[in-house]
Amino acid sequence: MPPIAEAPLERLDADLRAWLAGDVAQLQDPYPLFAALRAHAPVRELGPVVVLSRYDDVKVGLREVGRFSSRVFLSERAREAVAAMTPAQRADHDAVAAHDAVSVSHTDDEQHVRLRRIFHRAFTPRRVAEMRATVEAYTDRLLAPFGSGDVVDMRELAYRLPLCIITDLLGVPERDHDMIHEWSLKIGASRGMVEPNVLRDARLAIEEFGAYLTQRTAEIRSGRSAGGTIVEALLDDEEQEHLTPDELTANFVLLLFAGHETTTNLIATGLLSLLEARSQWELLCEDPPTMSPKATEELLRYVSPVQLTQRVAREDLWFGDVPVPEGRHIIMLNGSANRDESVFDRPDELDLEREGPGHLDLGFGPHFCLGAALARLEGQVVLSRLATRWPRMELGKAPGELRWTGNAMLRTLVELPVALGPRRG
Fold first, then answer.
1. pLDDT tens-digit profile of 346-360?
2. What is the architecture of the domain spanning 42-419?
3. Residue 391: helix, strand or coil by DSSP?
4. Alpha carbon distance 279, 268 (integer Å)
5. Lowest model confidence (mean pLDDT) among 60-64, 126-130, 253-257
């Protein structure tokens, strides 16, 4: 990409469209694009959407829920797309929209407050503290086969660890892990999307997942099967507020997707970043128990496992001199906000000792991530274990040779080969 000062808006729009469409070259390194947007078009209209790239604007969009709705399936963009669909495609869209409408991440006002009250039962400080033993046990089990001198794919560890943990907490039998994961991916891919094929796959996955959960809930309530820490809290008959069957399905998907995909990206992309910034990896290895919380927090900022958040304008808005009409679909770039040079000193450098403003990758305000404590815990445990055992770990491939996949929201490494070196102690 040419220097930022020379980047024409037409080129920015082309690169932005490519990134939003999941172009692999843009996913591999989106940060020059983000920097150019902040410098030249921090509030950029791109067809039926408005893209926000600066920290202060993204923070406003996350915080001010009275002016920004999470119900993205009701945006002007979605209505225009639905109008052009066939009846069958519209039925798929409506089914996915109905599913999203009862997810805690896509609700507003009292409905959102009620769902968060229910979910707080599963994520109290006591329950999260009790999860540490589960996280440590799974981490040790997955690391046990690794030996000195091995070359291993850490992307596989980053995939398996969060999946094992969240499915354990949700009470999903191990035999069902991959099936559940596939449903979750298909439903997650439909978030904010209007492509007919994506919506069709998501609708089928929702139906199959709903039938599966109906059976599992019956087994749990009858005592024939254990429900897992989180599900037992959500299904507690002694509580006054409960989830409906549709709410349980939608939010089970949310917990699985958010509790797995985002943490996978934190671990894999975070480890890659640490091994690239060798001085920071060595700083972590000097005192893993003390430095792993700092490393996890800085990596959440630096790699931004969730690269964007979507909202809809609930009223006519202005960002600077740019009008944003009611109903406009807004894409807020978390990954750009977390590299904003007006907020963070040396934002493109990984610095485990960094102090200052908080990042926005776990959200902000009323929609702050319910599973934030669990994501942080997983990052801290796995980084501490790796740094303690294999401080001389090195990348098995040059960073430029690594392959990427995923989408604009969740960019993902295909592989992360690592040479472990000798084990400490």
1. 999 999 999 989 999
2. Orthogonal Bundle (1.10)
3. coil
4. 18
5. 253-257
